[in-house]
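In this section we walk through a basic example: taking a raw amino acid sequence and producing a predicted 3D structure, encoded as discrete structure tokens. The instruction is simple. Fold the sequence below.
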Amino acid sequence: MTGRPVRAFERAARCAALFVCIAVSLAGVDLQAASGTPVDRMLLAAVQKGDAKAVRAVLAAGASPDMRDSSGTPLVLLATHANRVEIARLLVAAGADVNARDRIEDSAFLYAGAEGRNDILKLILASGKADLGSTNRYGGTALIPAAHHGHVETVRILLATPIDRNHVNRLGWTALLEAVILGDGGRAHTEIVRLLVEAGADVTIADRDGATPLAHARRRGYGAMTRILEKAAGR
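The resulting token sequence is shown next.
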């Protein structure tokens, strides 16, 4: 056996050995629990276990990056939940849909914004695939929960995009309103208010009761926020 048949045999042997290694690395993971092809199930198991080497190998073998687990959660969202940056990077590079939703309307992009998974958020944005106008189950863009949760760097990252600064969610709140109403008036939320104002957020948009961010800041005694909002309102 010489030439091309030998090379083909060697490739097949390497492939078989690779899959044996992957199977060993994923020992104890129930590969029968998910639908899809064998390599798709191996990819799911590799993501669940957090094995980036196995993820890379199984993707190279043709596994679908848009595989979901038994609850319907996309793999790239599973990686984002666990903040497994390298696995998320591999899946996004392989074409995973970063806007695919789970049962509660989260996507990898929305979750990364809401929970401050900044490394994953940056790689999703760099891919050019993020739907900046997508909204979560509360009708909010990624910017609104980022402001609510006090994720300063996340807000800064999102404000570097054309994301809507003034989107109103189903509660009737903008990112600016949430930073004041749901914040604690401390350094992080005050910085977020400053960032939003400097990025052009409309300080006159009121909640459903007609109270503006400034009114809420005054009511709560948030002095630093109040000064920022007063200055912006007086422009």
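Looking at the output, two observations stand out. The two ends are 83 Å apart (CA to CA). The CA atoms of residues 165 and 201 lie 5 Å apart. In the next section we compare this with other chains.
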